[in-house]
Amino acid sequence: SESSQLCGQSKLAVLKLIVSRGEGGRGYQPAMSMNSTRIFSLHDWPDYPPAYQKDGIEVSVCKTRLGLNPSLAGLKHLNRLEQVLLSQEVSLGQCPEGLALDIEDRVIEGSMSNIFIVKNGQFLTPSLDKAGVAGVIRGKILDICKASGLAYLVTSLSLQDVLNADEVFLCNSIAGVWPVVRIADAAFETGSYTQKLQKQLASENMIVMS
């Protein structure tokens, strides 16, 4: 296949696939006979410090707010301008990741990750019905909760809900699971729920443990 040919002998790398509606002229209306375009690119695996997974990270709260668009919410589409602004903001700070809130001040995700909190033994993650990206690892974690009988809830989360959590972690398919140890003045432990989840995802080859 195209992906196998590109990856070749790579043992650990990032394969990026972009699918677009195809080439066209000016205007927004696509031609009826247009063929889609596939773009494959291979990239080095990012060298995130192993301590991010083991010891956790500090997280900032971004000033940039996500707009609301139920038609596009949850999708990984190509309009990533909000993430560009979020990433620029994170790069200027001291933390490796930042929380993104929407314009109604609900916590939605990180600049490049999804967020979960644990409160009284229950996993909670933001609803992505108006903004945000439903990541692969987020979906897998929800599947694990269902299969294992773990209490979970997809809901609206305020920043205060996050700050009052027992455990907080961020996740994506490349970084894996990063425990959060501090947000502003709130400190958290790298708790047992987060650690067990890391081990289960690694055992199923869903994440790479450093």
**What is the element string, with H for helices and E for strands?**
HEEHEHEEEEHEEHEEEH
Principal-axis shape: globular
Helix content: 10-25%
- CA radius of gyration is 18 Å
**Per DSSP, what share of the residues sits in E-state strands of 2 or more residues?**
25-35%
- How many distinct helices? 6
Q: Could you tell me how far the N terminus lies from the C terminus, measured between alpha carbons in angstroms?
A: 29 Å
| Class computed from helices, strands and strand pairing | alpha+beta
Major sheet: size, sense and barrel closure? 10 strands, mixed
Given as residue ranges, the uncertain stretches (5+ residues, pLDDT < 50) are: none
Mean pLDDT: 95
Total DSSP E strands: 12
Outline the structure in words.
The chain is of the alpha+beta class. The protein is built from six helices and twelve strands. The protein has helices at 2-7, 51-54, 81-91, 136-148, 159-163, 192-203; strands at residues 13-20, 37-44, 57-66, 97-102, 106-110, 114-119, 122-126, 152-155, 157-158, 167-172, 176-183, 186-187. Strands 3, 4, 5, 6, 7, 8, 9, 10, 11 and 12 form a ten-stranded mixed β-sheet that branches. It has a two-stranded antiparallel sheet with strand order 1-2. Strand 4 (97-102) and strand 5 (106-110) form a beta hairpin. The longest helix has 13 residues, at 136-148. The mean pLDDT is 95.
